[in-house]
Design goal:
The structure is a homodimer.
Chain A: H1 4-16, H2 19-25, H3 30-44, E1 49-51, E2 56-58, H4 60-90, E3 92-97, H5 100-113, E4 118-123, H6 126-134, E5 140-143, E6 152-167, H7 180-183, E7 188-191, H8 197-204, E8 210-213, H9 216-225, E9 230-233, H10 234-238, E10 246-250, E11 257-265, H11 269-286
Parallel strand pairs in A: 3-4, 3-5, 7-8
Antiparallel strand pairs in A: 1-2, 5-11, 6-9, 6-10, 6-11
Helix pairs in contact in A: 1-2, 1-3, 1-4, 2-3, 5-11
Chain B binds a DNA duplex through residues 5, 18-21, 28-36, 38-39, 51-56.
Chain lengths: 287, 287
DNA sequence: TCGGATTACGTGCACCGTAATGATC
DNA sequence: GATCATTACGGTGCACGTAATCCGA
């Protein structure tokens, strides 16, 4: 068998043209390279170079061998990275979600069950979540629609309902409830990382009225400092996030209410089943 | 970079299940293998085995690594054989022909021009010859029809004409010429290695009348010992192979006369051009 | 007690570098 | 006298083997 180091040296010689240049690149002496190339030739039982006593050049067979060498080296490199990557993936649970709230709820539940593992989380749309699940990019996903794929195991997770927070002086502040159509024409503050809610807002409101903030801090500062409306959900309200000098009004459209589902591959149901039930229990406990 | 010997050892461990068995198979001590596997793990930066203090088993990552190892080893093996094979092909000229006579003529011409190379010859039908030329199985071929492929370079080589040799007592022995139809019903001796002539005989004569001899000696012995008809060609007659106590009669069908062409790839015209003209010259000189 | 893995230690070979030589421009 | 390959010789790292230890059936 031909060892990798010989192939590396061959590839270097092929790339640099001379033993000297290749030796420099490999931090090796010319004699060492010279010997290696000879060794390679004896091991393969062929001559790879035309030797002109002061110049070696790859012959046809040599060029052919270099192609193999490159392929083997590439595969070897790929192995080093691939195995490390695989190992890392073995030790991480990737969770994708269509919205931040249920993701925030689920993460600690997972971390609790898989103490020794890393948990990575990501927001994405339902299409990417589903394909990611199939490609093993995600092990668990949170969707806002029931998946129809028979290869997936899923479970109802929780509901979330959207409210609008208005200053008391706002024209709509007296209403028992409002619709997205009522809100049209009013500027509204919202964060960028709100998952599929962004699609709802874009669909139901005017694009130019959406004051999207990339950072959570900027958003909170603006909410504090301005009298602009912003959204909030029942789940956040339950946590006690209510400002006393504003009114919080439910949004009546069906769009403003959603149901989340947790899903994983059927084949991994056994592994993540405990997470599913623990997640449900956590929801009930936190009420 | 991971060296091949480590991958070989990994593959052996994967195959045999224990270090001990693998070590025996590799003619190596267990400690050596134990160290190698540890080394592999440190080099890859992952653990490949579950160590149960008295038993090691590949973990998921280990199994994944083994897949890579097998692929790399396979490629390495393939290189060893592939390069040697390529080298051999560099040093051989393969000639395919549809008939033995022109092949016998051409071979010495090639050998003369490519002294340091091996010449291998083979009989095959025109279809195989043409595909073999494209696949580099043959460098030169002798056809009995003009090739239409534009990627091929070809040249008229020589003609060959078939005669029938009959004992003087044969009913047809008085004829100036005969046709295949005249010969139908008479047994006839012929060699197996006559290329496309065999197709002609099968097409124009009855299968049960063809007494095909695999060895040239058997054929000659039978010709000597029997009074059965056999074929001969003008080219052989020119060489003086005529038996005094038999009559040699030309076969009048167009099928009994053929024209041979030498062909090679256009891209190798330069390399074999000299062979083409030398072959023609040799034909003229031998008249 | 045996099968199987690991640790400890000494050894030899294979690969390396330095120096010298050869060859070509 | 550059540039580049090869030969000769001496050094060393590292992969190996032997011996000893540990652990579980």
């Amino acid at each position: 068998m031909i060892e990798i180091y010989l192939l590396e040296q061959l590839a270097a010689v092929a790339e640099r043209g001379t033993l000297l240049k290749a030796a420099e690149a490999l931090y090796l002496s010319q004699p060492a390279l010279s010997r290696s190339m000879k060794k390679l030739e004896t091991q393969l039982g062929v001559s790879l170079f035309d030797r002109d006593n002061s110049k070696i050049t790859l012959n046809k067979t040599g060029q052919y061998a270099v192609e193999y060498a490159r392929r083997i080296l590439e595969l070897d490199r790929e192995m080093c990275e691939g195995v490390a990557d695989f190992d890392r993936r073995q030790r991480t649970v990737s969770v994708g979600a269509c919205a931040p709230f249920p993701l925030g709820e689920l993460t600690p539940v997972i971390q609790e069950r898989f103490v020794e593992m890393a948990v990575t989380t990501e927001l994405a749309d339902d299409g990417k979540l589903l394909s990611g699940l199939r490609n093993r990019v995600y092990q668990l996903v949170i969707l806002h629609e029931m998946p129809e794929d028979k290869a997936l195991f899923f479970q109802h997770y929780l509901e979330e309902k959207l409210f609008i927070v208005l200053p008391k002086a706002h024209p709509l502040s007296g209403r028992k409830s409002v619709s997205f159509d009522d809100l049209r024409g009013y500027k509204v503050l919202l964060g960028a990382a709100i998952g599929f809610w962004m699609d709802v807002c874009r669909r139901r409101l005017n694009a130019e009225d959406l004051l999207i903030q990339n950072s959570m801090e900027a958003l909170n500062d603006l909410i504090e400092a301005s009298s602009l409306p912003h959204f909030i959900s029942d789940r956040i309200i339950e946590r006690g996030f209510l400002s006393p000098d504003r009114v919080t009004i439910p949004i009546e459209d069906p769009d403003a209410k959603t149901t989340y589902y947790i899903a994983c591959l059927n084949s991994e149901k056994k592994k993540y089943g405990a997470v599913f039930s623990a997640a449900r229990e956590a929801v009930l406990r936190n009420r």
